[in-house]
Write a structure and sequence with these properties.
This protein is mainly alpha-helical. The chain has one domain. 72% of the residues lie in helices and 8% in strands. The longest helix has 39 residues. The termini are far apart.
Length: 105
């Protein structure tokens, strides 16, 4: 499933896409890297959400590249750890607060 190189009349090699799968793969790669660049710029600009855009780019590129799949998984695991620490910590504080109000009664 590789693009084929053919000789053109001017002795230049031309890359030709021979099927739909190749075209879809190229579109995914272009969109993924475009989102990645926008995400990197978004980290510096207050208008764009850089982390969300980078996360989406890793999700798209992960279907084609192993390194992007690993970063996507790592990014997702880190987000889950943060979420769990926030919610578990707030539930723990709520339990302590409830215990304190019961002890005062």
């Amino acid at each position: 499933m590789k693009a084929t190189e053919k000789e053109s009349p001017g002795n230049k090699k031309v890359l030709r896409i021979t099927n739909i799968k190749q075209a879809k793969r190229i579109v995914k790669i272009v969109i993924g890297f475009t989102l990645l660049l926008i995400g990197i710029v978004g980290l510096a600009l207050p208008v764009l959400q850089g982390t969300i855009t980078i996360f989406l780019s890793f999700a798209i590129l992960g279907s084609e590249f192993v390194w992007a799949r690993k970063l996507y998984k790592r990014f997702g695991d880190g987000a889950n750890n943060i979420k769990n620490s926030i919610f578990n910590n707030s539930q723990h504080k709520k339990k302590q607060r409830d215990k304190g109000t019961q002890a005062q009664r």
